[in-house]
Design goal:
The structure is a single chain. By secondary structure, the chain is of the alpha/beta class. The protein is about 40% helix and about 15% strand. The chain contains 13 helices and twelve strands.
């Protein structure tokens, strides 16, 4: 055999050997890198909301053991979307179902998670009735008019009463306020906090990412870290409310829902809702919130933290890197889920759960702002 042919055959055998070796070792490496974990299930429900006068859709996440242990009952978390969003957002853009699966695999408690369609409602009872005819004539909107153009916009009662009743009736829930939590982003962060404060008989804990938590805040801007409640300047006239919100947001977002005077705005202000609970002698729900250091609503989150400090209300507040984006919300979602799970999944006996930090049991969390 010519030496050149022997050389080519040797090289071919060496290449074949190397390829076989790579193929044999690749499968175990990939299996170790992507272990299989139990998966929960997603369902799409519809419910008739008496508070809205229409039928709405919702996503429901059921944890991995829900179908296996048919005697078990589970705490419930409600997650609210932001302006322009819908009931699909948390699953489609943040994979909330997969995050919950991962948390359960890491030893966190399991829970049912409900994601409703809140339109652009601000999760409140509107100051004025909407123009349903004009709403139905808007063909640029993707959502069906039958669902979006509600005749009776009591979105707070829809989430806190109609939705909770539907979930408790249909699923195996632990139907007590101490086993319910609520979270959200941006408009949904405002909704989560204000609903928990307005309905402490329904929710025991609330979490907010990038929430609009001080909509009537006028200044100062920028508001420094560690600002006190005495530093805050609040809008006191309709003109100042418009200035605080900005012309577009005031006209399109807030005026139809909050009204145009401070009576309506202050009635929905998270800090003032906390004060009302204190005056009434009612326990303030546990509060977790964050604002990215580049977020347009960072000052509002700092203002809410300053208000809570002044009122002596325990809370957890963070300022991670990031802005008002889904990249930020995806990164922060595991933190709020783990925090809420720790608070709503206490055993039926009332014994406290072990502390959870970074997916491990045992470490204490920092409190306050």
């Amino acid at each position: 055999m010519p030496s050149s042919l022997r050389s080519r055959l040797a090289n071919l055998l060496l290449a074949t050997s190397l390829w076989s070796s790579l193929c044999l070792t690749a499968a175990p490496i990939e299996a170790r890198a992507q272990p299989s974990i139990p998966r929960g299930a997603l369902r799409i429900d519809t419910l008739w909301s008496q508070s809205l006068g229409t039928t709405k859709r919702l996503y429901v996440y059921l944890p991995p053991s829900y179908s296996r242990d048919t005697a078990a009952r589970f705490p419930v978390l409600f997650y609210l979307h932001g302006v322009g969003g819908d009931e699909e957002n948390w699953v489609r853009l943040a994979r909330l179902d997969r995050v919950m699966d991962s948390l359960a695999a890491a030893g966190h408690p399991e829970a049912i998670v409900v994601m409703p369609d809140g339109d652009d409602s601000w999760y409140t009872t509107w100051h004025t009735l909407p123009d349903a005819a004009a709403c139905r004539a808007d063909t640029a909107r993707a959502e069906r008019a039958e669902s979006y153009c509600v005749p009776w916009p009591h979105y707070d009662d829809y989430v806190a009463r109609d939705l909770v009743a539907h979930v408790d009736a249909r699923y195996r829930t632990r139907a007590e306020s101490r086993h319910r939590g609520i979270g959200g982003l941006s408009m949904g962060g405002f909704g989560a906090v204000t609903l928990a404060l307005a309905y402490p008989d329904v929710y025991s804990a609330a979490a907010s990412h990038s929430g609009v938590l001080a909509p009537a805040l006028l200044g100062p801007r920028p508001l420094p870290v560690g600002a006190t409640a005495g530093d805050l300047q609040w809008a006191r006239t309709p003109a100042e409310l418009r200035q605080a919100a900005g012309d577009m947001r005031f006209t399109r977002w807030f005026a139809p829902k909050f009204g145009t005077d401070t009576i309506g705005w202050y009635a929905r202000d998270p800090g003032r809702l906390v004060q009302r609970l204190q005056v009434a002698g009612t326990t303030v729900p546990a509060l977790f919130f964050d604002g990215g250091v580049d977020d347009v609503y960072l000052e509002q989150n700092r203002a809410f933290a300053a208000t809570l400090r002044a009122l002596g209300v325990a809370h957890e507040y963070r300022e991670p890197r990031g802005g008002h984006t889904w990249d930020y919300w995806r990164a922060q979602l595991p933190s709020s889920l783990a925090w809420l799970l720790q608070r709503v999944a206490a055993p039926a006996s009332g014994d406290s759960l072990p502390q959870v930090r970074d997916g491990r049991r045992g470490g204490a969390r920092a409190r306050g702002a």
